[in-house]
TrEMBL record:
InterPro entries: Globin, Globin-like_sf, Globin/Proto, Hemoglobin_a-typ, Hemoglobin_oxygen_transport. This is Hemoglobin subunit alpha. GO terms for cellular component: blood microparticle; haptoglobin-hemoglobin complex; hemoglobin complex. SUPFAM superfamilies: Globin-like (SSF46458). The keyword Ribonucleoprotein does not apply. GO terms for molecular function: haptoglobin binding; heme binding; metal ion binding; organic acid binding; oxygen binding; oxygen carrier activity; peroxidase activity. It comes from the Eukaryota. Belongs to the globin family. Heterotetramer of two alpha chains and two beta chains.
Length: 141
């Protein structure tokens, strides 16, 4: 569970990136594919150009889901239930891909927000994203 201060840090960072979901999400995916090439298995239809429409669209959808999690933290399981079902039962994404995704997201946040992304914010986002990943993997059998 996140403390009130950690929630404030998560909300503060989200306020800085809200409205830029497509760009942040596309960069996140490109970093993920570069550093962890095996993750591209799930995204064969996506190119590797930062301005490619499909990459921007999927990146936006990913970050919009993070936005849902930020807004519905107290009801995270209910808010992310459809997404958890999709990943576990339809897409069958290997849950071991979530930690590298979290790591790459942290790098994107740090590279864009720089000094605004404090150590405390980093720790809060790590805890928050780990909790999101746990919720997304609870429906795996």
């Amino acid at each position: 569970m996140l403390s009130a201060q950690e929630r404030a840090h998560v909300a503060q960072v989200w306020d800085l990136i809200a409205g830029h979901e497509a760009a942040f999400g596309a960069e996140l995916l490109l970093r993920l594919f570069t550093v962890y090439p095996s993750t591209k298995t799930y995204f064969k239809h996506l190119g590797v150009c930062p301005d490619e429409t499909q990459l921007l669209t999927h990146g936006r959808r990913m970050l919009e889901a993070v936005g849902v999690a930020v807004r519905h933290f107290d009801h995270l399981r209910a808010a992310l239930s459809p997404l958890a079902d999709l990943h576990a039962q339809v897409l069958r994404v290997d849950p071991s891909n979530f930690p590298p995704l979290i790591q790459c997201f942290q790098v994107v946040l740090a590279s864009h927000l720089q000094d605004e992304f404090t150590v405390e914010m980093h720790a809060a986002w790590d805890k928050f994203l780990t909790h999101v990943a746990i919720v997304l993997t609870e429906k795996y059998r």
